[in-house]
Amino acid sequence: VDIRFNRFDPQPVPNANAVMFCLMDVSGSMGEREKDLAKRFFVLLHLFLTRRYDRIEVVFIRHTHQAKEVDEQTFFYHTESGGTVVSTALEEMHRIIEERYPVAEWNIYAAQASDGDNFATDSERCIELLDRKLMRLCQYFAYVEIIDERESHIFGSTENGTSLWRAYNAVDGKWPNFQMRRIAAPADIYPVFRELFARQPALRKSA
Q1: 118 located within any domain
Q2: With helix as H, strand as E and coil as C, how does the chain read?
Q3: Which of 86, 95, 121, 203 is a good FRET partner for 141, with 20 to 30 A between their CA atoms?
């Protein structure tokens, strides 16, 4: 697989360390199909980063109405019930960065996968966390929303979609290092990945 993108230049911190945060909704609406598509995207991003940095660490955060850091096996294969509160995963990511990954020493990347379901009032909290805390720390944040193949034609416009998608559109408009795409089938993953990482995000904004 050729994953060289000459236009992608995230202006990395001058060190060889990178951490990749994988965030995924594992509530009841995320079935095996959705998790498999998410896994394929995460694997591709990990491969891409390993070619750019000498040292890569991966942090797996899964969530329903609560978020927790887990190992890879638990992240992809253990089932869990409960509602969906996406902001808990963003809060957990920020907590881990503060504790283990100072931005002066680590290049921070995040990939989040969800079907777009979220607690009604939580999407505004997600915007707040991204705007005020996470985006100024991240080299790049990619959000992929897993949709049904039968519904893919409905979401032709980037403005239409779930409450989480609409909320993240606001973030996308403010931060060049935030990108979002939809995935409906395995064939979508590589083209979406190329779209995400062919674009050149700017430097992190200062606090």
Answers
A1: yes
A2: CCCCCCCCCCCCCCCCEEEEEEEEECCCCCCHHHHHHHHHHHHHHHHHHHCCCCEEEEEEEEECCCEEEECHHHHHHCCCCCCCCCHHHHHHHHHHHHHHCCCCCCEEEEEEEECCCCCCCCHHHHHHHHHHHHCCCCCEEEEEEECCHHHCCCCCCCCCCCHHHHHHHHHHHHCCCEEEEEECCHHHHHHHHHHHHHCCCCCCCCC
A3: 121
